[in-house]
C-alpha cells in the first residue's frame, strides 16, 4: 500500500485554505511519466490499469475516520504539474476547466509507480492557497509551509488511523 500527502492550491471555489482533500483521481500534466523507458515485468505490467487509481475502500475508511473525529474533508481531483513555480492565474483556470479541484507538483508520479507495482494508493492534499478568480494572492513557499503546519495534525490523525486499519 502507498499513502502519500501533498500541499496543493485549491481551484474549487468551495474549498478554503487549510482544508484537507482526499484524492479520488488525478490529472497527469507532468511532461514525463515514471514508467517511460524499459519495463521490468517483475515490477509491474507495461500498461497498468488506472481506472481506480485511488483505492475506494481506503477513501471510505479515511472519510469515516475524519467524520468520527470532527475533521472536515473534501474529496476531489488533483492536477499534477511539474513546477517548481506556483501556477499562474491562467493555469489555475485551465486545471479547473479540465476538472481538477486542486493543483500541485507531486503525488502523481509516485502514485503511477505505486499502481504499476500493484499497490493500493491513498492520497490527501492540504489546501495551502487558492487559485480561484478573485481569491488569488501572492503566495510564498513560507506561506505554504505555515498553512500546511497548521493543518498537519488533522491529516496525521487520519493517516495514522487509516494505516492502523490496513
Helix content: 25-40%
In the CATH hierarchy, the architecture is 3-Layer(aba) Sandwich
Strand content: 15-25%
Total helical segments: 4
- Give the C-level CATH assignment: Alpha Beta
> What's the CATH superfamily, by name?
Nucleoside phosphorylase domain
Number of strands: 5
Q: Helices and strands, in N-to-C order?
A: EEHEHEHEH
Mean pLDDT: 97
Strand ordering within the main sheet: 1-4-3-2-5
Gyration radius, in Å: 16 Å
Gap between N and C termini, in Å?
8 Å
Fold and architecture overview:
Helix 1 crosses helix 4 (141-165). Strand 2 (20-28), helix 1 and strand 3 (73-80) form a beta-alpha-beta unit. It contains 4 helices and 5 strands, in the order ββαβαβαβα. It has one domain (2-165): Rossmann fold. It has 166 residues and is an alpha/beta fold. A 5-stranded mixed barrel has the order 1-4-3-2-5, surrounded by 4 helices.
Briefly summarize what is shown.
The protein is α/β, with parallel strands linked by helices.
Could you outline the blueprint of secondary structure elements for this entry?
Layout (H helix, E strand, L loop, with lengths): L1 E9 L9 E9 L27 H13 L4 E8 L8 H9 L4 E3 L3 H9 L4 E10 L10 H25 L1
Overview features:
single chain, 166 residues, alpha/beta, Rossmann fold, five-stranded mixed β-barrel, 23% strand, globular
Amino acid at each position: 500500500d502507498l499513502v502519500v500527502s501533498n500541499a496543493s492550491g485549491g481551484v474549487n471555489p468551495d474549498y478554503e485554505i487549510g482544508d484537507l482533500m482526499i484524492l479520488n483521481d488525478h490529472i497527469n500534466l507532468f511532461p514525463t511519466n515514471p514508467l517511460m523507458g524499459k519495463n521490468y515485468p517483475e515490477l509491474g505490467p507495461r500498461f497498468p490499469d488506472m481506472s481506480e487509481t485511488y483505492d475506494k475502500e481506503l477513501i471510505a475508511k479515511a472519510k469515516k475516520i475524519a467524520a468520527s473525529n470532527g475533521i472536515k474533508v473534501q474529496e476531489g481531483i488533483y492536477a499534477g504539474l511539474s513546477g517548481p513555480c506556483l501556477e499562474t492565474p491562467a493555469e489555475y483556470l485551465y486545471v479547473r476547466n479540465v476538472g481538477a479541484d486542486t493543483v500541485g507538483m507531486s503525488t502523481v508520479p509516485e502514485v503511477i509507480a505505486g499502481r504499476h507495482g500493484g499497490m493500493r494508493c491513498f492520497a490527501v492534499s492540504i489546501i495551502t492557497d487558492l487559485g480561484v478568480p478573485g481569491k488569488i494572492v501572492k503566495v510564498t513557499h513560507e506561506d505554504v509551509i505555515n498553512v500546511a503546519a497548521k493543518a498537519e495534525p488533522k491529516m496525521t490523525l487520519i493517516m495514522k488511523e487509516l494505516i492502523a486499519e490496513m
